[in-house]
Amino acid sequence: MKSIKFLTLILILVPLFAFAQDDYSFDMSEIEKEIEKKPYTLGGYLEVLPKIFALDHDAAFYKLNFYNRSEKDYLDEYNFKLSMNGGYSKGISEVYIRSNITKTESDINPKTDVDIDEGYLTINPSSMLNFSIGKKALKWGKGYAWNPVAFVGRSKNPDDPDLALEGYVMASADYIKSFSGPLQSISVTPVVIPVYEHVNGEFGEQNNINYGGKVYFLLYDTDIDFMFLTGNSKPVRFGADFSRNVTSNFEIHGEFAYIDNISRKTIDGSGNKTESIYDAQSYLFGIRYLTASDTTIIGEYYRNGTGYTGEEMEGFFGLVDNGYATYFSTGNDALLGKATTMAKGSYGRPNPMRDYLYLRISQKEPFDILYFTPSITSIYNINDGSFSLSPEIVYTGITNLELRMKAAFLEGPDNSEFGEKQNDYRIELQARYYFDASRLFE
Amino acid sequence: MRKIITAILLLLLASPAMAVDGNSLLLQVDRNLNPDSYESYKKLINIEPNGKEKEFILFTVKKGKDKVAALFISPASEKGRSTLRLGENMWLYIPNVGKPIRITSLQSVVGGVFNNSDILRLDYTSEYNVEKMEDTGGEYILHLKAKTKTVAYDKLKMWVHKEKLVPVRIECLTETSMLVKTIYYKNIKDFGDGIVRPAVIETDSPLYKGYKSVMIFAKIKARELDDEVFTMTFMPNLDSLR
């Protein structure tokens, strides 16, 4: 473990010295070399991400994850990631692949994963039309922290909404048409998603082919999308979103999703499961505002129609408490096993309840420090009054190196979402070095 | 056709200065800076007071008065990012984020003194009217007023090279005439096909004391482009135009 910590320090510090000096040059021939297009691309980033978690011994998720482990106050974790992406284009076709190798050193869950997040072939017969087939991440919706209309993509983590997500195997196309007048453009994106045991098995019910689509309009300077997903892997759903700049520094956006006959499983303190089927409506409304002093404010309200009520969450937390007490009195962890199963489903997902507020305030380059951006983000659970508060600083002043330091403090009463999380707080330092390896083949 | 228009405009400009129409002159400045529809490669350099620099290379395409898109080619951390501007609508596409988001003209996708409206610059005539024109003998000075409130700078004071009819210096001002930044056009270069324009644009700002940003045009050439290239859906595919 000591060598891992030393390696972490070296990987964070070395680029600071290695890339601090650049040459200022007007040499046109050098620029022309750089702009020459090659048929292939190869790049990515190397990331080091150490984290320290301060554990909350009274929280339900601590009990669930640590009941059969030695008690700890702090947990340290060291993450290493090599993310590579590459492409090759010939004529109107292009192959693209994005993969990650991640290694996590941790006392509770050490692991090494190799994943292909995306890998697809695109055919571009014209600027109006393209076809893609393969594993691709499509992100629908205008929300920053949440996207209830992301019918064909994976859910993003509101704690890190900009993180690249893994895609699904699909066939898709884009047809684009521009106009003059109030309707400036329209694009149509049909999607076909097969779901079988070894293909998109986690998307939904297997042995089905699902059909989705999105129609986009730029109408009166407003982005408007309508989307749907049908098939037997997931309940049929429809949605819409919009985004518009009201003034040059004020943007508004929103999403609405309607899900037909969704099934939701709840569990009570004794481990009894109940399944209900209903039509869910989720929606989101948000703003992005830039002040004259370069402060960006992002605010969103999210209604999660598939989320749990306060009472339903209390039932789950009660089950963990009962299971924990039973385990220590009898050694029987059956109730905790049930709770673990439910936690792997909807109870354990980020923001599993009904009503949330999101607020992010970031200040670009304060005190004239170029490329330095401090921010603070909060997610507030309206239903139980718990919240997370995450101060963060990002520095990108060294070419291709991104340094980020972030903390996340979780607060809330007993039986509340953030009050029952495993950690009281978390501190992390991320160093990410981007590289372009295309020139290695020259 | 281009030569005929230029000749007519030069003939007009040969008359006494007061007779020169400021808006026609501004239109000629626009056409001398770039063709109506074109592609270009440019390098952006942000220079800090301590001399430290950060460089970006962009591939830019523009069509008509209000359509412009740019793709970052380097550095590696920005590669694949693209920006699109349709009038006052602007979007940023980041490959990792995977979908375009709306941005504003006053933000800067590269940091430094250039903001988004400087990088994705439209024709001056599409955003400004000439309120007043002066003839100093060696240069024209155009006083420009934004057509709408959504334009990044409310007023511009533009010094124009009398012979080449390209800007020499532009002061960007607020409604109350406070100086936001000064843009200097330098190193007039022949890019071929009749495009003779400044290859280097420098800017500094009293709001960023000691900082400087430089834009160097490496290539610029006329190119016919489909309207569909300038759509949000096409943003991830901009590299296919290179």
* Overall CATH architecture of chain A: Beta Barrel
Mean pLDDT of chain A: 89
| Helix content bin of chain A | 10-25%
CATH topology of chain B: outer membrane lipoprotein receptor (LolB), chain A
Helix content of chain B: 10-25%
Report how far the terminal alpha carbons of chain B are from each other. 27 Å
Low-confidence stretches of chain B: 9-19
> Largest sheet of chain A, described in full?
18 strands, antiparallel, barrel
* Secondary-structure element series of chain A: HHEHEEEEEEEEEEEEHHEEEEE
The major β-sheet of chain B equals: 13 strands, antiparallel
Instruction: Count the E strands of chain B.
Output: 13
- The CATH architecture of chain B can be named as Clam
Q: Please report which band the strand proportion of chain B falls in: under 5%, 5-15%, 15-25%, 25-35%, 35-45% or over 45%.
A: over 45%
Morphology call of chain A: globular
- Number of helical segments with 4 or more residues of chain B: 4
Alpha carbon gyration radius of chain A: 24 Å
Number of helices in the DSSP assignment of chain A: 5
Shape annotation of chain B: globular
The CATH homologous superfamily of chain B is termed Lipoprotein localisation LolA/LolB/LppX
- CATH topological fold name of chain A: Porin
Can you describe what's shown?
The complex is a heterodimer of chains A (442) and B (242). Chain A has 442 residues and is mostly beta strands. Chain A has helices at residues 2-18, 28-35, 60-66, 310-330, 334-344; strands at residues 40-55, 74-90, 93-106, 111-126, 129-136, 168-178, 183-195, 208-219, 222-230, 237-247, 250-267, 273-290, 295-303, 355-363, 372-381, 387-398, 401-411, 423-436. In chain A, a hairpin with a 4-residue loop joins strand 12 and strand 13. Chain B has 242 residues and is mostly beta strands. Chain B has a single domain, classed as Lipoprotein localisation LolA/LolB/LppX (outer membrane lipoprotein receptor (LolB), chain A, Clam), CATH 2.50.20. Chain B contains 4 helices and 13 strands. In chain B, 48% of the residues are buried. Chains A and B meet through helix 2, strand 1, strand 4, strand 6 and strand 7 of A and strand 1, strand 2 and strand 13 of B.
